[in-house]
Amino acid sequence: MQAGTAKGADVLSALQLAPATSQQIEAAIQQGQAAAASQTRALPGHHLRDALMSQLEHPRWDDVAARCLACGNCTAVCPTCFCHAEADVPALDGQSSRHERVWDSCFGEAHGHLHGSNVRPDIRSRYRQWLTHKLATWHDQFGRSGCVGCGRCIAWCPVGIDLTEEVAALTAGSQP
Question: Where are the domains positioned within the chain?
Answer without folding.
Answer: 44-171
